[in-house]
């Protein structure tokens, strides 16, 4: 069996290059070689916070576009040589949870997230994709692979936050966190017709990008309580929707405080540490305030991914604004991941093109 190189988590807090067997292709599956990949804040939670527990010699990464090198004999719609978008979440589509509409939890909570969680990820010369017909999406020729790799995770996650918060036209929306995920939530809220979009963050490039994506106001969490700042800007009434894409377990306290009765909070932030999320009793209407809190892992699936790609094709979504650090060559993967860990002030998102 031939060997390949991959960049892996060796244990909690430890990373390095390793050699592994090239994965085998099952009858419904595909083997893909990456064209472009990007490290994610979730990789940082996994390695340095031990958020999913220990993993030994597990290849990292779950954001990629690539070229298919092999398909199983039952794969109908893809063939070797096809260029594809690889979603971070690759569910088992026959699972009961998938039939219920929650494919991201197929066969267990969060278990649709397989890359760099239950199996090797995409920071390798080759990687395996289960159920290729349902999980891969066609990469349109007009899209540049570096921009398109944002479709793996940043676009679907940010957009899902907006879906979870139920943003409707005219809504006032607060997006907490304007890293790449929050920026895509700002873009999605604007596409859904939000009126005011209050974006919370401080990194200058993120602030500039948030304005380009449609933020009407920028709020810094360093300038004091964000709920108070929002209440001040809304004559004490608050917002209709909050999308949480940054902060920590204590952020829900502020989100509940800034929300109107009947409002919804959509969380896509990965709470990598802490035991409990606190909800303020009085501002939650003593349990009767009709303030809903939903949190979710991004959905994958070919249909959804191709719809999101068509937003880019049609010129309604430009992800290139987020690509502050571009690398060429597989060997730069480690550097790109370290940027994600250290989050220099000028970073939005690094991408590595092969
Ligand atoms: P970033 O770290 O790039 O962005 C985080 C944002 O939160 C920044 O704008 C930061 O501000 C802001 N922030 C930090 N502290 C606070 C605070 N106390 N209050 C309010 N805002 C704060 O993260 P990403 O955009 O890459 O990812 C966001 C989250 O989404 C991560 O937890 C990631 O793991 C998760 N995720 C979830 C997925 C899902 O399917 N649900 C998929 C992919 C990612 P500043 O500008 O100062 O840095
Ligand atoms: Zn990710």
> Helical region count?
11
State the order of secondary-structure elements, H for helix, E for strand: EEEHEEEHEHEHHEHEHEHEHEEHEHE
Poorly predicted segments: none
CATH class of the largest domain: Alpha Beta
In the residues, how many domains can be counted? 2
Number of strands: 16
Describe this structure in words.
With 354 residues, the protein is α/β, with parallel strands linked by helices. It has 2 domains: 3-153 and 299-353, Medium-chain alcohol dehydrogenases, catalytic domain (Quinone Oxidoreductase, Chain A, domain 1), CATH 3.90.180; 156-295, 3-Layer(aba) Sandwich (Rossmann fold), CATH 3.40.50.720. Helix content is 26%, strand content 24%. It contains 11 helices and 16 strands. It has helices spanning 41-48, 96-99, 132-135, 145-148, 154-165, 180-191, 204-213, 226-233, 251-258, 302-313, 333-342, and strands at residues 3-11, 14-21, 30-37, 58-59, 64-71, 83-86, 127-129, 137-138, 173-176, 197-200, 217-219, 239-244, 259-267, 292-295, 323-328, 349-353. Helix 6 packs parallel to helix 7. It starts with a strand and ends with a strand. The model has no long low-confidence stretch (mean pLDDT 97). Zinc ion is lined by residues 40, 42, 62-63, 88, 153. Zinc ion (ZN) binds next to loops.
